[in-house]
Write a structure and sequence with these properties.
single chain; alpha+beta; Tetrahydropterin Synthase, Chain A; three-stranded antiparallel sheet; 9 helices; 10 strands; rod-shaped; membrane; Protein HflK; Band7/mec-2_domain
Length: 354
């Protein structure tokens, strides 16, 4: 007969050993738990066996539910996070790293990363101060510095940051020449956009801290108009080169002209001084001659005439002979004679060389 057939001793296992009465032990444990907690749930020692077992099962189930609830209520906050805890919709505390408890549905928990540096990119077409269309692309690095403001002051903080960045870009690029934004004032544009972005975000209290704003690539025109724009830039560069050449020529010629002018001024001053001194000497000489002229005017006048004629004729190659008592004046062309003499001397020297 099999060990588990009807009529067999069910208190023994297949090896003939007596099996423990687990049902009785479980009933004892339930009964003890029922006696301990019966007063709380309306039970007592006078209840029957069925009533005691039902209370015990209810208590165990309740304890299991409580344990599950507590397990579900526990949460861990990472070192990079802060936890915002709301109780009945009102902020009651902010938890930092570690194990914490929140009891739903009364309490809600929002985990916010407050340490990681994040970034967003914004790109768009902007109108510059000189009415050129430019493409601008920037990257904004930020982190959350106030988790409560970040979560509840704006609906979408990241989207708000993007719109604010685009507004700051349009403001700065709209007051900047395209050539300046593409070349030597690129760093100024970056700083101005960053400062403008911070000033725009400040009234929102979005809980965002801007670390740095970087320009990606160059501020440039759209590809469809780039060839024409490059031609215009080349023309401007040529114009600038010609202006620089003109400035260099001007810088060279002005000192020369100033030197020549100074030289002419000095020559004029020297000539003036010489003429003035000469005139002063003549005046002094005539003042000395005045007594002699007063004493013998005819003789003095004749002498002055002869001296003047002598000084004039000594500077010419022409000779005039005036014979006293005659009406004819003889002219001796000494200048022609001297030219012919020089020519003949030159021919003779050439013949000797040959």
């Amino acid at each position: 007969m099999a060990w588990n057939e009807p009529g067999n001793n069910n208190d023994q296992d297949p090896w003939g050993k007596k099996r423990p009465n687990n049902n009785n032990d479980l009933d004892k444990l339930l009964k003890q738990a029922s006696e301990k907690f019966g007063g709380i749930f309306g039970g007592g020692k006078g209840n029957g066996k069925g009533s005691s077992g039902g209370n015990a099962s209810f208590i165990i189930g309740l304890l299991v539910l409580v344990a599950i609830y507590l397990f579900k209520s526990a949460y861990t906050v990472d070192e990079k996070q802060n936890a915002i805890v709301l109780t009945l919709g009102k902020h009651t505390r902010t938890d930092t790293a570690g194990l914490h408890f929140a009891f739903p549905p009364i309490q809600q928990v929002y985990l916010i990363d407050v340490e990681s540096i994040k970034d967003v990119e914004v790109e768009g077409l902007m109108l510059t101060k000189d009415d050129n269309v430019a493409t601008v692309k920037v990257k904004v690095q930020y982190r959350v510095n106030d988790p409560l403001d970040y979560k509840f002051n704006v609906v979408d903080p990241v989207e708000t940051l993007k719109h604010a960045t685009e507004a700051a870009l349009r403001q700065v690029i709209g007051h900047t020449l395209l050539q300046d934004a593409r070349t030597d004032k690129k760093e100024d544009v970056r700083k101005n956009v960053e400062n403008e972005l911070k000033s725009i975000l400040k009234p929102y209290n979005a809980g965002i801290e801007i670390f740095r704003l970087n320009l990606i690539g160059n501020v440039d025109v759209p590809p469809s108009v780039k060839p024409a724009f490059d031609d215009a830039i080349k023309a401007e560069e040529d114009q600038r080169a010609y202006l620089e050449q003109g400035q260099a020529y001007r810088s060279k010629q002005i000192p020369l002209a100033e030197g020549q002018a100074q030289q002419l001024i000095q020559q004029a001053n020297a000539y003036r001084a010489r003429v003035v001194e000469k005139a002063a000497g003549e005046v002094a000489r005539f003042e000395k001659l005045l007594p002699e002229y007063t004493a013998a005017p005819v003789v003095t006048r004749q002498r002055l005439y002869i001296e003047t004629i002598e000084s004039v004729l000594s500077k010419t190659s022409k000779v005039m002979l005036d014979v006293e008592g005659g009406n004819n004046m003889t002219y001796i062309p000494l200048d022609s004679i001297m030219k012919r003499s020089k020519t003949s001397n030159t021919d003779n020297s050439n013949q000797k060389q040959q």
